[in-house]
Design goal:
Order of helices and strands: HHEEEHEHEHEHHEHEHEHEHE
CATH topology: TIM Barrel
Radius of gyration: 19 Å
Number of domains: 1
Strand order of the largest sheet: 3-2-4-5-6-7-8-9-10-1-11
Helix content: 25-40%
């Protein structure tokens, strides 16, 4: 093989890719890995136990979402704590702080244009930062420079956004009338505003197949993100895609490796959304061998593997997007 870049890796046969990963070609150069377990998922093993309220997810739209994407159908919002007014949001954060929370993820359903209506909560978010000192991560959806500036001024610790690299996927799965260019403009808005931002790429969003993920990563690489998180489609009961087969662990690893090659100075993370069971075990093991910098809710076998590779191991109750605060590549 004459050169090993993201494009080459993307089209390698699965067996060749796995052989490269297993051989240590992409191993963790920093010799450390961070494991995250925020409180929105119960997590317990001999290494770490998540608190029930250290870092919850909050929906500012309750269970409402205008898009009803085929992979989610608003079901993910049902797992979040609802706070649909500014007063409710600040009151909830006050209670979280008194109960020992260190921060929260503020998210919600999308409006028809693909944005999350954070603008009307800016003052409340700024008050949470100013008076409570919580770590505040926001999930934005499509965003413009004006809104990004408001979030920066409010003091949010990081902005998250899912980046889709296929117009077909945007239309067919997201039910959204925007384009890949709109997602690139969102990345540009964050970059210009100098707000810490952590884009996500969702492996297998197009009915379980890889389609547009490499293009999404290439877009991200143009704008110097604080970190990049790979998540993976997992079937959710009650959605139009509940019977769709998720991407294979090797395909998720392909996305992780491509991200590393495109952005060698950017922390690369395997995020919280991914299939469970044996699928997750295989994914997590490949991720450790592929040299990721962090994993959310790792299986115990992956932690043991990291130990056997003599990696320094750290656990955190924060959102995995905060990896850029703790690692310097």
């Amino acid at each position: 093989m004459t050169s090993l870049d993201a494009e080459t890796v993307w089209y390698l046969p699965k067996k060749e890719l796995v052989n490269l990963i297993e051989s240590g070609t992409f191993s963790n150069k920093a010799k450390q890995i961070q494991f995250y377990a925020p409180s929105f998922v119960h997590y317990k093993n001999k290494y770490f136990r998540s608190s029930h309220n250290s870092f919850p997810s909050i929906s500012i739209t309750g269970s409402s979402c205008a898009l009803k994407c085929k992979h989610c159908n608003g079901k993910v919002l049902d797992t979040m704590v609802s706070a649909s007014t500014s007063a409710a949001l600040f009151g909830l954060c006050e209670k979280l702080k008194s109960d020992g929370a260190v921060g929260c993820l503020i998210s919600g359903g999308c409006l028809p244009d693909g944005s999350v209506p954070l603008d009307i909560f800016i003052d409340a978010i700024a008050k949470v930062k100013r008076e409570l000192g919580l770590t505040v991560i926001v999930h934005t959806g499509v965003i413009d420079v004006s809104s990004a500036k408001q979030l920066k001024a409010a003091g949010v610790d990081a902005a998250l956004i899912d980046i889709i690299g296929s117009n077909e996927t945007i239309r067919e799965v997201y039910n959204l009338d925007v384009s890949v260019a709109d997602y690139e403009q969102s990345l540009k808005a964050f970059h210009e505003t100098k707000i810490p931002f952590v884009p996500h790429v969702l492996a297998g969003l197009h009915y379980g197949e890889l389609k547009g993920e490499l293009e999404a990563l290439k877009m991200m690489a143009k704008y110097s993100p604080s970190a990049v998180i790979t998540i993976a489609f997992m079937p959710i009961r009650g959605t139009p895609m509940e019977k769709v087969t998720p991407p294979e662990p090797e395909d998720i690893a392909r996305v992780l490796v491509a991200a590393k090659l495109l952005m060698p100075k950017t922390p690369i993370v395997l995020g919280c959304m991914r299939p469970k069971g044996e699928h997750r075990k295989k994914t997590d093991m490949l991720a450790v061998k592929a040299g990721v910098d962090a994993i959310a809710f790792p299986v115990e076998d992956a932690i043991q593997l990291a130990e056997s590779l003599n990696l320094e191991i750290y656990f955190s109750p924060l959102c995995c997007s905060q990896i850029f605060e703790t690692i310097n590549l």
